[in-house]
Amino acid sequence: MQETTSTGSAPSRVLRSARVLKSYFEHKLNLSLELLTEAPLLPLHHGMQFSLSLGHCGVWGLKASGPLAEKTQAEISSHFHGLLGAMDELERRQNELERLELNYRTALENLPSNVILLRKPRKLCALPPRRRWKMRLDCMIECKDAADLHKIALELYAQSQSLAFLNYRDLPADCRLAPSELEALGAVTLLVHDILVLTRDEQRALYQLTQVNSVERPWLIVGANLPFSGLPSEGAVDSDLLMALSRTYLKLTRPFAEYKRENLIHYFLDSLGQNPS
Questions:
Q1: pLDDT category, 178, cuts 50, 70, 90?
Q2: Are 150 and 193 in contact (CB under 8 A)?
Q3: Given 127, 142, 159, which residue is the final one in a domain?
Q4: In this structure, are residues 209 and 180 in contact, taking their beta carbons and an 8 Å threshold?
Q5: What is the four-CA torsion angle of 131, 137, 143, 148, rounded to 10 degrees?
Q6: 11 φ, ψ to 5°?
Q7: Residue 130: its pLDDT value, please?
Q8: Residue range 250-275: average pLDDT?
Q9: What pLDDT score was predicted for residue 193?
Q10: Under 8 Å between Cβ of 162 and 272
Q11: What confidence tens digit (pLDDT) does each residue in 104-123 have?
Q12: Among 3, 4, 113, 223, which residue's CB has the most CB atoms within a 10 Å radius?
């Protein structure tokens, strides 16, 4: 079954996000999953069908190599409908605005010649596209509050071009230890809450990931609840990984709400990314 891959189109964006979610659940469930863009010709023994709301996006369901428990199906469905549904809703709103603008321009052009406008129509100004940063540097964030770390990581992800936000601890153990498996997750944001709880092997795998020069691999946000100056003395911290992350080190000294309210997140984005689009 063929997937739409036209560059930049809405179906292409939806399918790219769907493939990222599929890879995430493959690692998490240790199953082989196939993304179905239309109903299969033969009965589906293992897998699931999504609701019709995703059908017009080109995503019919998933075919699995083994049985999926009802709870697992509910989790998968929630993720797919949450992310892809939101993208589809934004696309519909954009199309509706474009339709209204076209109707407005057409009405102005078709005014009878004997009608005199009492007021010059205001020029329509298109809203500038939302800026999204292409993240080029993995980073370490010093933060005492785990909840604030999670909030700011989500905010950075929302302003980036990443396709999905993943928690490192949600990945299967074999994936966390294999740099190739981590790289295969694609252009996602990967949050590691605390560098001090990582094993040596996990740190080595992450270090090798930082050496992959590609925007198509995961962007790392690694948390630390100790000052950076104290981390080298921690025997459990890999010095190579620490050096790789030291290029971009952020220290949160205030609650996340203050950074959000004062619009300081963009200062972080400017130091982490490039080419906002």
A1: very high
A2: yes
A3: 127
A4: no
A5: 30
A6: -60, -35
A7: 58
A8: 73
A9: 92
A10: no
A11: 778 777 766 665 655 665 66
A12: 223
Q: Which residue type occupies 175?
A: C
> How does residue 199 score in pLDDT terms, banded at 50, 70 and 90?
very high
Amino acid of residue 23: S
Give tens-digit pLDDT for 126-137.
Answer: 555 556 667 678
pTM value is 0.54
Domain count, the chain: 2
- 24 and 79 inside one domain: yes
Phi first, then psi, for residue 242 (nearest 5°) are: -60, -40
Q: Cα torsion for 257, 258, 259, 263, to the nearest 10°?
A: 100
Q: 204: which residues sit within 8 A by CB, 6+ positions away?
A: 238, 240, 241
Q: CB–CB of 248/222 below 8 Å?
A: no
Q: State which of 100, 127, 154 marks the end of a domain.
A: 127
**pLDDT tens readout for residues 207-244:** 999 998 887 889 899 999 888 888 877 778 888 998 88
Beta strands in the chain (DSSP E): 33-36, 47-49, 61-64, 134-135, 139-142, 165-167, 189-192, 219-224, 249-251, 273-274
Whole-angstrom distance between the N-terminal and C-terminal Cα of the chain?
Answer: 32
Q: Is 143 in the same domain as 252?
A: yes
Contact (Cβ atoms closer than 8 angstroms) between residue 23 and residue 2 = no
Per residue, the 3-state secondary structure of 18-47, as one string, reads HHHHHHHHHHHHCCCEEEECCCCCCCCCCE
Co-location of 188 and 89 in the same domain: no
